[in-house]
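Researcher: I'm preparing a figure for a lab meeting and need a structural model of a single chain. I don't have an experimental structure, so a prediction will have to do for now. The sequence is pasted below. Please return the structure as tokens so I can convert it later.
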Amino acid sequence: MAKKSRYSGIGGQAVLEGIMMKNKEKYAVAVRRPDGGITVEIDNDRGILPGSRLKEIPFVRGIFNFIDSLLLGMKCLNFSASFYEEEEEERHSGEKKSRSGAGEKFLSVVVTCFAVALALGLFVVLPYYLSSLLKGSLRNQSLLAIIEGVMRILIFILYVGGISLMKDIRRLYSYHGAEHKCINCIERGRPLTVDNVMRSSRLHKRCGTSFIFFVFLVSIVLFFFIRVENPAARVGIRIALMPVVAGISYEIIRLAGRTSNIFIQILSAPGMAIQRMTTKEPDRSMAEVAIAAVEAVFDWKQYLKDNFGYDTEDSGEEEG
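Model: Understood. Here is the structure written out token by token.
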């Protein structure tokens, strides 16, 4: 069996007691219900500005991809959470119906905007403020810019570690691990069985955690060259440049998912290390949910046949 990883194009996200998998415009959310069964919802998502050529332009497409991912992620989280609401809320079918329409979409946009604002405050404004406290003892602006970037990374690591103390977040991280294991299993040329998924790696170069690290890395480089004395202007420029940072970071992680270049591997290493915090080893039931999500949107048997010459019809679905 070939060991070299082959790009599949599928990606995903962990949700409450479940996993979302996306292949091109088609996505599926698989959720483990309280009664133990698995519910799978399949739909299409074309994101904002569907069909626009802006989404094909390098360094611009990453901005739209980031926004689309946030909106879809919030929608999938809302869907998974609907299975675990309090019993009296479950009875109000009219309320659940309204959430599935325009009201749910509007709420997702509002919550997403709030989450972005909170992230900008925590990972852009706060590091700048903390580093500015050192201006009295450090006059070197270049060194302060580097310290600001390091603080940004440390705040993120502390944030990830802090929320991992919550039981629900630990389970979310385990589903995150199951998502990665499923994709790695396929991209390594193994049939998608629970056993093969469980022995695959829980780390993946195209993970959102790695994307965030690249955002921090690129921001250090860009902010290094900002030479504006006014503090409000410096913060404003940093916020205004975040779409540019996201666009560049998207191209880096996109390349990382398609190449084994040694330079890209070195760049990816810190993000992969942080993934050890944002992913946990899943149990077999979580792997089953991940498989259900993949199979709803991706023909992995045909993929293995096309890319690895592995015919599951002839060999069975166990990989040695």
